[in-house]
Specification:
By secondary structure, the chain is mainly alpha-helical. It has helices spanning 15-33, 39-62, 66-92, 98-138. It is elongated and about 50 Å long.
């Protein structure tokens, strides 16, 4: 996809989506390091959660209604928090060391920060649209 300077043409151009994909790739690498005994537990759970992060950003964008987009972004944020808990579990079980855990959690919290900014931007657009609609009715 070609992106012109500062323009958003698809959800794939969103900074938050790009960051979410990169985070997803890092979680995939972690999943591959987990022992076979976690195949139907932690590995399965983490796969679902990491997909949920990017899927919900994409689906929300595709809804074309600010409130729906916000709701899907909130679900994405919940999935990131779920992954943070899974990362902690990996550390507690001795599957990863403290530095690896801290690096992944730092990425996760940065992704949440950017996602919160995207949610706030959608809220502003929604409020702007409401205000514009009210002015049209009054005049």
């Amino acid at each position: 996809m070609t992106k012109k300077k500062g323009k958003i043409f698809t959800f794939e151009d969103l900074k938050v989506y790009i960051m979410a994909r990169e985070f997803s790739r890092k979680i995939s690498k972690l999943i591959k390091k987990l022992p076979e005994e976690e195949e139907y537990n932690l590995k399965h759970q983490m796969r679902k959660a990491k997909l949920s992060v990017t899927n919900n950003i994409a689906e929300g964008y595709g809804r074309y209604h600010y409130q729906e987009n916000i709701q899907f972004c909130r679900m994405s944020r919940g999935s990131i928090c779920e992954i943070i808990d899974d990362i902690n579990e990996c550390y507690d079980e001795g599957y990863i060391d403290e530095n690896y855990r801290d690096d992944l959690k730092r990425d996760a919290y940065e992704l949440i920060r950017v996602l919160n900014g995207y949610i706030a931007s959608n809220k502003r657009q929604k409020d702007k649209q409401k205000s514009s609609f009210k002015n049209e009715i009054i005049t």
